[in-house]
Specification:
The complex is a heterodimer of chains A (400) and B (534).
Chain A: H1 8-14, E1 19-23, E2 26-31, H2 37-45, E3 47-51, E4 56-61, H3 65-72, E5 84-91, E6 97-107, E7 110-115, H4 120-126, E8 133-136, E9 141-147, H5 151-158, E10 171-176, E11 179-184, E12 193-199, H6 203-214, E13 219-221, H7 224-233, H8 280-289, E14 293-300, H9 302-310, E15 327-330, E16 336-346, E17 351-359, E18 368-375, E19 378-387
Parallel strand pairs in A: 3-13
Antiparallel strand pairs in A: 1-2, 3-9, 4-7, 4-8, 5-6, 6-7, 9-12, 10-11, 11-12, 14-17, 14-19, 15-16, 15-18, 16-17, 18-19
Helix pairs in contact in A: 2-7, 5-6
Chain B: E1 10-15, H1 19-30, E2 35-38, E3 50-54, E4 57-60, H2 71-76, E5 86-88, E6 92-95, E7 101-104, H3 108-116, H4 120-144, H5 156-170, H6 174-185, H7 188-193, H8 199-206, H9 222-230, E8 233-234, E9 237-238, E10 242-244, H10 248-261, E11 265-267, E12 272-278, E13 281-287, E14 292-300, H11 304-312, H12 319-327, E15 334-341, H13 355-358, E16 360-363, H14 367-378, E17 387-391, E18 406-413, H15 426-444, H16 448-451, E19 452-458, H17 460-467, E20 503-505, H18 519-530
Parallel strand pairs in B: 1-2, 1-14, 2-11, 6-16, 14-20
Antiparallel strand pairs in B: 3-4, 5-10, 6-7, 8-9, 12-13, 13-14, 15-18, 15-19, 16-17, 17-18
The chains are: A alpha+beta (400), B alpha/beta (534).
């Protein structure tokens, strides 16, 4: 049974829809209202406030903290400066991805790692013999994501942080309604946005202060349904949905490498003086050989979808929320060449989009594939074109 | 080809950069034609406009919601890439004179409970009604996405089209046909009364049948106009309405950006004095500054009256045709009041800030109220206590007002163009009209007046002066049954052609009519290209 998050006292009153789900053992709001439209548009037009406390969080302290994380991550964490955050993933010996998350360097020898799955054991295993202290801070910290074009103005009003100078993937310490907080310019919506971190005792004050400061800007509390649409538009993958953690997977074929997940850009092979990161050898071989799979975007051909429904005398009918049911994807000859792992209607792009794993051969943008689509219990196919991700990438996201 | 004529001359010049003119231009340019759009005002959009009337406050001065813009146009012109965004507008709030209220929204169960306060029976039927109207909307969709079937035509292609449409209709079964025949002839109130018993539902729903017409909710034919408002479609969802981000002007700006990218030239502050007609053929336009612009074809994006009676001139028309144009009813019946607000006003019946403020607010408390509002107009006066359709876009779109402040758009009916004292008396009555609107609304929102920073009042006369809408008709001619389909604007001339060779019409005065739909513009372009007229 899920337990309440530090913000539960506030979120439970606002969640008039009673739509909750279990997120890593915590009760998390799917959508505050019956449908998530408003919450989605808050992310894109004003600001949405989302409780992300269930994220797994670890504090890594000590003179060897950088060495530990560099060894663990495919990204060269040693290059990360104080006050910077990096996105990374980590692999097993065979270069298969275990999880992905962020690493924030909050002090000279102090890092904070976020993960989708419990990671304490892995940090401890990799850190064996190193001069580090590792703390699971998941329950100690309360975290909210404040995402959307107005989030900067809201934080400017609510905190003493110089948010105008806080760069994309920067981290800064600040006071917010008397609370000590960390503000990072990070998030999972692919928009301008921040995450605010504090001790769990301060959760309600943090929530209230942000909602108050946000009211003139149209802030809305937002749930995971709105987040799911946003993150697909942003092309962000999700553990357990778009890929599976290598140690938890029975089938070898279900495991993925960073390259196969479109995360090749963070793999840093050349590191001065540091020991090789875990999985390096396998990934170097893959780089030479080429990857078997690719994670791509798909855009469904709307006219064809409309025609398909029309043949049933129905208007096109897509699920109201983002979906995670896997759908096979075929080539023109009917051979399965991949699978859709997440799909959604994008209200801002006015397109039906999907994240899809395909054989590398079919991954070139513009390639037309056939995606399964069920109408009236009949399994049919609709054409869909391989597209670059992110589907949605506003300038404001990284703009100074 | 664009410069096939070899003289760099335009293939088409379009008069008016309203949304239809721009859509038409974009489609012609997409087919490789060289197109110039000339616009009288300093910005594109016509009545699809956002203007910063008060510093920091951006108003959709005229049209204020979207629904009808055809999805295929959005896709063809890639409008989302050019900044077209639509935000949800899901609630409909109706306060009543006895202090009660009805709030309908996207949650069917919540809406059912709200209606059940007035009639448990209607609460059950409401969803079915919505479903039926959605079906009807979908069935008439081929009509609005294509040329109007024309029973006056005799050629085999036309008969084929008619037969196809008849088959489409027959396929729906007898029950549907009877329902549709009723719909064509009944009044909005009578039609709704066949479904519902409680007036608290019928009154606010019936107003969709009169918006933009000089008719009452009990006037025959208004049931059909209801349907026009149910054809709206957002993302495949019928009956959905939305607020364009940045106001409706942003829709026009997105279309203009798409058009420009396709090579369309748009000339602002270039009012057209008249069309150049030589031997019954349109050869270009003459601007007010005397410049003459030649083009293979001239396309009018202004209303039929302005097109034929002003820009062409009666001397170039057959008397019979001129007569029919004159008979095409414009008679504007509505105005707009736009308010800049210091803070959100509150309803007496439901104080505080809530979802009821961010949707559509309808002041239509009873049928008698609406009829009395119509009575005033019949005798040449604006309604003392008018029907109002209100939105507060700043609650959903923070870009239109400074933080914490708000914009309120009030569509007001009735405000007849022809006052008893004459249309020219509007400047004298404008402020009184604005006062009547605010006084009436204050009965429901007692603290409204204290929140008003500034206001803009647009009478139908103003709509004519500023936006060139003849008699202030927001749809370029009333959307009444006898002025739709093959009769819009004149029987036999519903296909964007005119009796003047090389003169075409592309705006709301043609099939399928008004609202930010874009279909007339796109269909005009398609027809011209098909006919190799350009």
């Amino acid at each position: 049974m899920p337990i309440p998050s530090p913000f539960h006292e506030r979120t439970s009153k606002l969640c008039t829809s009673y739509r909750w789900k279990d997120w890593s053992g915590y009760a998390a709001v799917c959508s505050f209202d019956t449908n998530h439209d408003r919450e989605y548009f808050a992310f894109r037009e004003s600001a949405g406030l989302l409780d992300v406390s269930p994220l797994f969080k670890y504090e890594v302290y000590g003179p060897d903290a950088a060495a530990l994380l560099s060894r663990m991550m495919v990204r060269d964490v040693g290059k990360l400066k104080v006050g910077r955050v990096g996105y990374s993933c980590w692999c097993d010996d065979h270069g298969k991805v275990i999880d992905d998350g962020t690493v924030a360097r909050l002090g000279e020898d102090y890092y904070r790692v976020t993960a989708a799955d419990p990671t304490l054991h892995w940090l401890q295993a990799v850190g064996r013999g190193l001069r580090v202290t590792i703390e699971d801070s998941t329950a100690r910290l309360a975290v909210v994501a404040l995402q959307g074009p107005r989030s900067r103005e809201i934080l400017r009003a609510a905190s003493d942080a110089d948010v105008d100078r806080l760069k994309f993937f920067g981290a800064v310490r600040a006071k917010l309604d008397g609370l000590d907080v960390w503000i990072t310019r990070t998030g999972y919506t692919g928009d301008l946005g921040y995450e605010v971190w504090t001790e769990r005792d301060g959760a309600l004050r943090l929530w209230d202060a942000l909602l108050d400061a946000g009211r003139p800007h149209g802030i809305e509390p937002a749930g995971l349904d709105a987040l799911d649409v946003s993150r697909i538009e942003a092309g962000f993958i999700l553990l357990g949905v778009d890929y599976f953690s290598a140690p938890k997977t029975i089938l070898e074929t279900r495991k993925s490498t960073p390259f196969e997940l479109g995360l090749g850009w963070i793999v840093d092979f050349e590191r001065a003086g540091a020991p090789a990161f875990i999985g390096r050898e396998a990934l170097a071989a893959e780089r030479r050989r080429g990857s078997a799979w690719a994670l791509v975007g798909l855009e469904v051909a709307w006219e064809a979808l409309e025609a398909l429904y029309e043949s049933f005398s129905l208007p096109p009918n897509l699920p109201a929320t983002a979906r995670r049911d896997g759908l096979p994807v075929y080539d023109d000859e009917g051979r399965q060449v991949g699978m859709v792992t997440s799909h959604t209607w994008s209200p801002i792009l006015k397109k039906y989009i999907a994240l899809t794993s395909v054989h590398a051969k079919w991954s070139a943008p513009g390639t037309v594939l056939q995606m399964e689509h069920t109408v009236e219990y009949e399994r049919r196919k609709v054409p869909a074109k391989v597209a670059k991700t992110p589907f949605f990438d506003p300038e404001r996201k990284r703009k100074p | 080809m664009s410069t096939a004529n070899g003289r760099g001359r335009y293939d088409a010049v379009i008069v008016g950069a309203g949304h239809n003119g721009l859509v038409c231009a974009a489609y012609l340019a997409k087919a490789g034609r060289k197109v110039l759009v000339v616009e009288r005002r300093h910005q594109v959009g016509g009545a699809t406009t956002t203007e910063e009337i008060v510093p920091g406050f951006k108003f959709s001065c005229c049209s204020y919601v979207v629904s009808l813009l055809r999805p295929w146009i959005i896709r063809d012109l890639d409008l989302p890439r050019h900044g077209y965004e639509v935000l949800p507008l899901e609630e409909t709030f109706t306060p009543f004179e006895d202090g009660r209220y009805l709030l309908r929204d996207a949650d069917p169960e919540r809406t059912k409970r709200a209606i059940a306060k007035f009639s448990p029976r209607d609460a059950e039927v409401y969803k079915q009604f919505g479903q039926r109207m959605g079906e009807l909307g979908r069935l008439v969709k081929p009509m609005i996405d294509g040329l109007a079937p024309d029973p006056t035509a005799r050629n085999p292609f036309e008969l084929l089209r008619l037969a196809k449409f008849a088959k489409h209709v027959r396929g729906q079964g007898e029950e549907w046909l009877i329902g549709n025949a009723k719909m064509m002839t009944m009044s909005a109130v009578d039609f709704l009364a066949e479904w519902f018993e409680c007036e608290q539902l019928i009154a606010p729903m019936s107003v969709s049948g009169i918006i933009g017409t000089f008719l009452g909710v009990r006037s025959p034919g208004t049931a059909y106009v209801l349907l026009h408002h149910y054809m709206g479609e957002i993302d495949g969802s019928y009956r959905a309405w939305g607020l364009p981000k940045g106001g409706t002007g942003a829709v026009a700006a997105a279309i203009a950006a798409a058009a420009r990218e396709l090579g369309v030239e748009i000339r602002l502050q270039a009012p057209v004095a008249q069309l150049r007609i030589r031997h019954g053929r349109a050869t270009g336009v003459v601007l007010e500054n005397g410049d003459e612009i030649a083009a293979k074809a001239v396309i009018s994006g202004v209303d039929p009256h302005r097109t034929f009676l002003r820009l062409v001139g009666e001397e170039h028309l057959e008397p019979e045709f001129a007569q029919q144009v004159k008979r095409f009813k414009m008679r504007g019946s509505s105005g707009k009041v736009n308010l800049a607000l210091d803070a959100l006003p509150e309803f007496a019946c439901l104080p505080g800030r809530g979802p009821h403020l961010r949707g559509d607010i309808t002041i239509a408390p009873s049928i008698a109220y609406l009829e009395r509002a119509y009575d005033d107009a019949k005798y040449g006066a604006f309604s003392r206590r008018p029907f109002m359709d209100i939105v507060i876009p700043s609650l959903t779109d923070p870009t239109v007002a400074p933080p914490g402040k708000h914009t309120m758009s009030i569509f007001v009916q009735y405000a007849p163009y022809k006052l008893k004292e004459g249309a020219a008396d509007w400047p004298n009555q404008r402020d009184r009209f604005g006062d009547a609107v605010i006084d009436t609304l204050s009965e429901y929102m007692p603290n409204l007046k204290s929140r008003i920073l500034d206001r803009q009042v647009l009478s139908p006369w103003d709509l004519e002066q500023v936006y060139g809408l003849t008699e202030g008709n927001i749809f370029h001619g009333e959307l009444s049954l006898e002025q739709l389909a093959f009769q819009r604007p004149v029987a036999g001339w519903s296909r964007y052609r005119t009796p003047i060779h090389d003169l075409w019409m592309c705006a709301s005065g043609t099939h399928p009519g008004g609202g930010i739909m874009g279909a007339p513009g796109a269909l005009c372009a398609r027809t011209m290209l098909h006919a190799r007229a350009v």
